[in-house]
Amino acid sequence: LGHDDPAAALTWLNSWGCRIRYPRPGEPDLFGPGLRAWTARWYPRLPGPDARLGSLTDEELAPLGDCFAELAAVRAGPAERPRTLGATAASKLLHGLRPHTLVPWDEAIARKLHGARDAGAYVAHQRLNGEWARLVLAGSGMDEDGIAMLYGCPGRPLAKMLDDYAYITLTRSDTQ
User: Fold this and answer.
1) To bridge 27 with a disulfide, which of 23, 47, 126, 153 should be the other Cys (CB 3.0-4.6 Å)?
2) How far apart are CA 33 and CA 47, in angstroms?
3) What per-residue confidence (pLDDT) applies to 81?
4) What angle do CA 48, 50, 52 make, to 5 degrees?
């Protein structure tokens, strides 16, 4: 996922079910300028593309709360139907930008694990998933690629596998 193409980011988010309305002809694009401003401020401060979920320190995690909050606040709807990007879409976009490092969430996961969907809860979610990643890696004696191969999903980041687990156990359990 490119960080410098708001139209591609919006298409990608909607492919994940975010349902963010595209601007109609003649409407101003609110999402594009907002995402570009966020990118200028925050993209250089994200963990590097080679960082892994289980390796982030508290010092690296701390600024992610403000990063997440500002992204979630990006306007994504016209004045007559105002909306922001929101917590779920922001977490998904951050995961798309750093798939091996940052874990997405949905409302059910956020509320059940952290009681909120704010900046503090986002950092707590990354910290918790980092702990899980270290436990999985140490307990299995494998690296991320080995775990992905074991579960038949080669190339799938551990961050996404942990999200899959949370989705199945926390979100899907509510619908069954």
Assistant:
1) 23
2) 23
3) 82
4) 95
